[in-house]
Amino acid sequence: MKIAISALHLKESPADGVSRFTYESVKRLILNNPNDNFFLISGRPLPDSLIFGPNAENIVIPTAGDNPFNWWYWHERKLPGILRQTGADLFFSPEGFVSLSTDVPQVPVIHDISFYHRPGDLPFIRGVYHRYYCRKFARRAARIITVSGYCRSDISEYLNVDASKIDVAWNGVSDYFSPIPEPEKNGFRLNLTGGVPYFLFVGNFSPRKNIPGLLRAWHLFRRETSFPHKLVLAGGRLYLNSETDRMIRFSPLRDDIILTGPIPHASLAPYYSSAEALVFVPWFEGFGIPAAEAMRCGTPAILSSVTSLPEVGGEAAIYANPGNTEEICSAMKKIVTDNSLRASLVEHGIEQSAKFTWENTAGCIMKSLQMAVK
Questions:
Q1: Which domains does the chain have, with CATH numbers?
Q2: What percent of the chain shows pLDDT beyond 90?
Q3: 359/348 Cα distance (integer angstroms)
Q4: Largest Cα–Cα distance of the chain, in whole Å?
């Protein structure tokens, strides 16, 4: 096949879930399918390290920026001509946008549709664009890929799309995530927190990540116990962060909140491995890569009991209602005080996370692409 791929989110150092999915899956599609030809259509010239193989080439459609107008112009005015010129059999969009102006079969990855359920989480214009066009994209698509069984059901029901048209390709866990020896954990913890145990959050600070809820639960944990655990927030600001900023600034425990800023993905393993637990209780999640990564590192996970996270954690995590401060706090207490529970979570978490590999992701994507052109 001649497969055109949107490389708008293809980056050497992916910093978010969509760009991570794009990098890991596109690399494997190219390397694992040497008899197919791939056109990586980007908004800027790609470095050689992102071409991945002799069966791939980069085609540039310059874009002025990452905003809804440029998204529309790139897909509706520029992309159709490139698809004709290349003779592409198929267009694959890892970020979920397709063109409404071409007859070439298209397969978008709709990572989730939280913008319908939580419209206030996105800046206004971006949210309007997503809510207006996502339904149109889903109807135009030859097939749809999503990242969890939860999202498959949600997309089918909310967008009125036949579930048989939607394929699931779970996210994966990169190979550099694994448990580290106890002496290394102690040394890392000493540098990060002065040797004090800590709870960990990994991700951006958008409203749906529920960092205010995490902060309230941690404050309650500290008030009700004698444990000194600090809170490490590993990630960066995204947008609409005022409540999170305010709670951190005025926290009575501000000195025990560690803001790392964005961390290179390959450097996250010791943060996970050295933590008492990952506490990841978002309001809405399409998959939840930090949950799978933490479990692969042998770290217990406290996860939201809603959306996709029970699918990711299986029987290997503790769950809490993201809106229930006491429930999240209770889970923290269990992790700290119940050694047998902790040991069980570590063992089963490593087993559960083994289900999530980028090789499996790429294989599921290729099957979906092949079905789209039959």
A1: 2-171+357-372 (3.40.50.2000), 182-353 (3.40.50.2000)
A2: 93
A3: 21
A4: 67
pLDDT band at 236 (very low <50, low <70, confident <90, very high): confident
For residues 112 and 122, the answer to whether their CB atoms sit within 8 Å is no
Mean pLDDT of 317-324: 98
Average pLDDT of span 174-188: 96
> Could you tell me the two tokens for 176?
């550099």
Euclidean distance between CA atoms 95 and 134, whole angstroms: 11
- Flag whether pLDDT at 132 surpasses 90: yes
Beta strands in 43-143 (DSSP E): 56-60, 90-93, 106-108
Element of type H or E holding 41: strand 37-42
Which runs of E-coded beta strand occur in 205-314? 230-234, 257-259, 277-280, 301-304
Q: Which residues pair with 303 in a beta bridge?
A: 280, 319
**Residue the block writes with tokens 């789209």:** 372
Per the DSSP assignment, residues forming a β-bridge with 277 are 199
Contact 221, 332 (CB under 8 A): yes
CB neighbour list of residue 160: distance below 8 Å, 6 or more residues apart: none
Q: Which helix (H) or strand (E) holds 318?
A: strand 318-320
Tokens of 300: 């217990």
Query: pLDDT tens, 58-75?
Result: 999 999 788 999 999 999
Per-residue DSSP letter, 175: T
Average pLDDT over residues 299-324: 98
Burial class from Cβ neighbours inside 10 Å (0-12, 13-18, 19+) for residue 170 reads buried
